[in-house]
Amino acid sequence: MSIRKLVTLGLAGLLLATTAACSSSDDDAKATPSDGASTVEAPDTLRIGYQQIPNGDLVVKHNKWLEDALPDTTIDWVRFDSGGDVNTAVVAGSIDIGLAGSSPVTRGLSAPLNIDYQVAWIHDVIGDAESLVARDGTDITAIADLKGHKIATPFASTSHYSLVAALTDAGLSTDDVTLVDLQPADILAAWTRDDIDAAYVWDPTLSQLGGTVLTTSTEQAAAGHPTYDLGVVTTALAQKYPAVVDAWLAAQDKAVAQIKDDPATATEAIGAELDLAPADVTAQLEGLTFLRGTEQLAPEFFGTKAAPGAFAESLHQAAEFLHGQDAIDDVPDVAALQPGIALDALDRTFGQK
Amino acid sequence: MTTTETKLTTPAPAAVRTPRPWLRTLGLRSAGVAALLGVWWLVTALEIWPRVLVPTPGDVWDAFLTVAGIRPDENGRTGFSGYTLWQHLGMSLERILLGAGIGTILGIVIGLAIGTIPLVRVLLEPGVTFLRQLPPLAYFSLLVIWFGIDETPKIWLLLIAAMPPVAVATAAAVGGVHRDYVNGARSLGAGRWDVIWWVIVPAALPEILVGIRLGVGVAYTSVVAAETINGVPGIGGMIRDAQRYLQTDVVILGILVLGISGVLLDSCLRWAEHRVGPWRGRA
Fold this sequence. Notes:
The structure holds 2 protein chains of 2 kinds. Chain A is α/β, with parallel strands linked by helices. Helices cover 50% and strands 17% of the residues of chain A.
């Protein structure tokens, strides 16, 4: 028995030590940024979560505009494949700025996640780049024909949101069809094998599928279900280093300006990041709508501090959808979502001087 | 589940009062589980990490009640992704039993062939060893391209995962059968098939069962990989779905259910092993 007791005691000691170590390292992590704040305006490192989506974020990354604007800061670009993973990384404190679709961001701003971040930028408004297509050889020509058929989409994405919205508007419920959770590459494989009849997915997979287009995210936006790729900034960063957020916003605005005014240069940068030919990038950019900073202050988007725009309302609608999907506990009302938009920073950078 | 709970309520005293060794083992094991639960509770109580990332034991218990269909959540829903926990588990077990079952039969046949026919050994052994080294996710992408997204690629994956350990164990067991048994049967006039069926298989059976246990174990650990694509219903699909929505309590629930059902399945096979070859490890 004595040896066992010894072992038990040893284990207990080890546990206490581990717990102590964990909590102390946590304190260190908290202490470092505040030390930095007292001396310099920008943090030592800025960690940015990006995705392989053809938009201004990749132009900023490729041209190192942020590195130039913040010379004393090390910029870490971390690649993510979905907004859900970006949410996890923000909760874990691994990134300061991230890119995620409006669906994951709505989830992040609602219970139970309640992530401490703010929407500060619309990277793009999703248009024809995300569409619902039916396979050739099926007799599906309209959304209502989908009843009883198998439809694939990456769950928890903006496509998933648009698909369920389109089905609902056509008088179908998710029980009338078979929804399959597949990533874009797997959708392509299943499609060529005739395993699925329709898919709601984004480019470049969308272009590879072909088939009959039943609806696009442009149409869904017009029907009151807009989807976006959003830039989110942690509240901690926004409060501690407002100048950094301003510099990031300015760089993003510069990238959108280049996409609009000098598309050849922007396309080349995006193509280099995505390993795509400029012609393919041009085709994919056409499916997205880009907004300059001043345009994002319009009433149909963020609005201004004095007159908040309709953006919170569209987040609210997305939240209602997610609640119907059992993905969030409660639907936050518009007033509760409004603080989740970084109007301060937007006003500072793009407002009337 | 129920036995574990009763164990938990009376851990240490049982071990102290009775000198019987199995009771002491039971007590120590319960104490181990209780200690783990205690650490888990302590870590969540200290709130070292956000509760979204590390849910409390109570959160996971609530998730269990909801997903198992015992008590609806505040929105009146039960189950997860449209199925209850038992439907998820049943589907996963069905896949494992089907995949590992076919894999076991194939493995025994291939193992017997490798063990008894030298030419087959030369031909097949490298292939079996090659398959054994592959992580299931590596060939699953290929299986999806070939067999689609429904049940077929999942069964194939589990089959390929379960087959090599059984084949290797069977081949080794056949090779280890005492020469005198074979020669004795031969001298009494037994033919090739008589020897295999009446001498080699019975003598090798306990070792083959160890191989089957290993094979089922490998299939069990591969089921989450098999259910990464269109895996709902299925415990792997449930875990993946929950991860998408950052519902960590359901992820932990899925892991616990997989672990507990895996241990139960393994003890069934171990029991079968003792029944078939009670002399193993003693003779």
